[in-house]
Amino acid sequence: MRKLGRTITGMAAVLLPFEEDGRFSAGAYQACLQETYEAGLTPAVNMDTGYVNLLDDGEKATILRLAKEVAAGRPFVAGAYIEGTEGDVVRLYRCEMERIVKHGGTPILFQTSRTHTLNSPEKAAVYAQSVRGFGKVYAFELGRMFAPNGEIWNLETFERILQIPEIAGVKHSSLDRQLELQRLKIRDRVRPGFKIFTGNDLGIDMVEYGSDYLLGLAAFSPSKFAERDRLCAQNEPGYQPVADALQFLGNVAFRAPIPAYKHSAAVFLNLLGKIPSDRTHPRSPTRPAWEADILRSCAERLGLI
Question: Are 274 and 38 in contact (CB under 8 A)?
């Protein structure tokens, strides 16, 4: 059943922007973080949108420092990413989480391929041991269309992880409405206060069915997402046109190959004058030369240009 008229918790996975010469743009990044806060959303850093899988430890630490400076005590979420790192999984997770908490962030645990072969009790045990003693943590359920280390859990695993006290919510990125609706049903039965953050950029109306959100698409325009959320909470008739325009943008930006959405984000934000170039990370897939033309129509429909 649709649940209009409720307050939505919104988070935006902030894009990592680059200068024309290929250097990471710290100034533009902090401006995007500040814009996210001003819109009323919570920024998420060192996420897929921020190329966390392509950053080294020093670069991830720089991102945390920049986020801490802008946050100034306000909440932010940061990815705990351990794929490709040798060592005990639990120890690696705890090390990443401690670094995030030290900077004032709330950790969200990226999956690792090393748990793919574990059964449901074993997977849940890894999470329980990793987060024990932390105040609040989120988990990340990521489809492999985004990254090979991701995994969509079976329902037994999801329910076991949902019952770990330190884990306050899960970002679900399967791009499959039915899978997300199944999780919402389990959540409502087992732990109603648990947050399910939709990561479905192709179905952002999942907020109408009880999900909150943590979206890379929200980084394209935090203010428009905030407007949509306000209209939804107030059950205003203007909600649907804004939601439809945002979904149009999502359908364009998150077309195959899906990981190239980050280049779409760079093109879009550069089009709006938010970042200094439309460059993406050199190891990330790119969009065709005409990308700006189609994204301009998205921006026009949203009233941004």
Answer: no
**What φ, ψ does residue 280 adopt, rounded to 5°?**
-110, 175
- Tens digits of residue pLDDT in 32-74: 999 999 999 999 999 999 999 999 999 999 999 999 999 999 9
The residue among 6, 3, 2, 28 whose CA lies nearest residue 15 is: 28
How many CB atoms neighbour CB 73 within 10 A? 6
Rounded CA separation 184/71 (Å): 31
CA atoms within 13 A on the CB side of 244: 6
Range list of H helices, 234-302: 239-253, 261-271, 291-301
* Strand residue runs (E) in 18-143: 42-45, 77-80, 106-109, 137-142
Distance CA 130, CA 108 (A): 12
Widest CA span of the chain, in angstroms? 53
Q: What is the pLDDT of residues 98-152, one digit of tens each?
A: 999 999 999 999 999 999 999 999 999 999 999 999 999 999 999 998 889 999 9
What are 10's strand-pairing partners? 213
Task: Count Cβ atoms below 10 Å from residue 63 Cβ, excluding itself.
Answer: 26
* DSSP secondary structure letter of residue 284: S
Quickly tell me which residue has 């004058």 as its tokens: 273
Handedness of CA 199, 201, 202, 204 (dihedral sign): positive
H or E segment to which residue 11 belongs: strand 10-13
Confidence at residue 2, expressed as pLDDT on a 0 to 100 scale? 83
- Looking at residue 302, what is its pLDDT? 98
Candidates 196, 289, 282; CA nearest to 16 is 282
Quick one: average pLDDT of 237-246?
Answer: 96
Contact 242, 73 (CB under 8 A): no
